[in-house]
Amino acid sequence: MNLKAVLDPSLESGIPHGEALLAFADAVLGEEDEVLDSARKRVLKELGPEALVDAAAVVATFMQMDRIADATGIPMDGAFLEQTREVRAELGLNRFASAQNTFGSEA
Amino acid sequence: MAMISYANVSVPVRKDIQEAHEQVWHKLAEPGTWWTGAERVAIAAEVRQAWHCRLCKERKAALSPAAIPGSHESLGTLPKPLVEMIHRITTDPGRLSKKWYGELLEQGLTDAHYVEALGVLVRTVSIDSFCRGIGRAVHPLPSPVRGEPVRRRPPAARMDRAWVPMIPNGEEAGPDGDLYGGRFASNVLRALSLVPDEVRLSIFVLLPPQYMDPFKVRDPAYDPGRALSRAQMELLAARVSALNQCFY
Lengths: 107, 248
What we know:
Chain A is mainly α. Helices cover 64% and strands 0% of the residues of chain A.
């Protein structure tokens, strides 16, 4: 899996139908209904109706979980912080404003 | 009449998702721990209004939200600090700060009211996002149920490194020791625990059908056996979190 595709969907993710799924996530969070219709149809065509339901459910879950994390100021859990050190550096995730909840103002 | 129905959508919404959404919507209308049923429904309504707020759009586009003065375009039924909380978390969650949270408390919002309102907010966003994803209009908000809030604060909830007090793991959880089912809960599972029912609804009711058992998430080999593979699910999850600029 190419994790960089998460930040730049023009890159190949290495996940089957990754491009369609990334476009769907972007469209649900976007404001253009026509773009969402098109993205939905692509997921239906490539993966089927049950997969569309799953995809919508995962997007919905993280629309919730991201807000729980960022609105309560929770820090990343200790062991996971160490395990993700390299990938965070590779993807530049430490630059997110919410990284302050883990690192303080030194982030 | 059912408040939640996926009967007329063109895709097969799993029964477990439907049942979870029904439970969440039913609880939305009932008195909570700190807010009445009417207030909880008003919070959900304000969440939907936030997406149309011009001040929120201008702040979202700005380098710093604090640089844009003004008043939110709200429904006018909730106090200003609560409106600010709802609008900011709904539309720009990645740039919240401890300072911003502290200002809400200075304006009269309590930590417990904040956590319960946050629970209502995130579940509304979640279910509305699901509807948007499958191409269904959002569900009508339920009619509030009369009654008084419970007003119970967990005695073991304490400040750690988060902005809000949380119930610890293990024996230190005290009388709320059953909340995490005897298992070790990560920070995101504990984040709403100042109001335990918000954990029950947001995490233990919604997560399993929409994503997976929250205690299996840290096992990369676990696959809940859905139409999407685990890898495909995590790709979606990571992209949403990147778009929301969520470090956690």
